[in-house]
Amino acid sequence: MYLVRLLYVSKVSNGFSKNDLQSILAKASEHNQSKGITGMLAFNGDYFLQVLEGGRGAVNQLYQRISTDSRHEHLLLLQLS
């Protein structure tokens, strides 16, 4: 398996709530473990910074799903290695 690391930043969209953050964390924990993805999510109230690590296909699929999530906007890929 070819492993990759992906780093991105995004801005929360209007209407983002504390419940949204809890939902993201719960779903990520459940989904990512089953796909062999690890990483870290940082959030300062306005921006997300996330690093994802795992198999290339699994990380790519997850990033594509994240990119269509309406809870954030202005997604910017910072690194893919």
User: Which overall shape is indicated by the principal axes computed on the Cα atoms?
Assistant: globular
- Assembly state here? single chain
Strand content: 35-45%
Total number of beta strands: 4
Largest sheet: 4 strands, antiparallel
Structural class: alpha+beta
pLDDT below 50 for ≥5 consecutive residues: which ranges?
A: none
Radius of gyration (CA) equals 12 Å
Keywords for this entry:
single chain; 81 residues; alpha+beta; four-stranded antiparallel beta sheet; 2 helices; globular
Can you give a write-up of this model?
The protein is of the alpha+beta class and 81 residues long. The chain is built from two helices and four strands; from the N terminus they run βαββαβ. It has helices spanning 18-35, 56-67, and strands at 3-12, 38-43, 47-55, 72-80. It has a four-stranded antiparallel sheet with strand order 2-3-1-4. The longest helix is centred in the N-terminal third of the chain and has 18 residues, at 18-35. The chain is globular, with a radius of gyration of 12 Å. The two termini are 14 Å apart.
Please summarize what this structure is:
The protein has 81 residues and is of the alpha+beta class. It has helices spanning 18-35, 56-67; strands at residues 3-12, 38-43, 47-55, 72-80. The chain has a four-stranded antiparallel beta sheet.
SSE layout:
Blueprint: E1 3-12, H1 18-35, E2 38-43, E3 47-55, H2 56-67, E4 72-80
Antiparallel strand pairs: 1-3, 1-4, 2-3
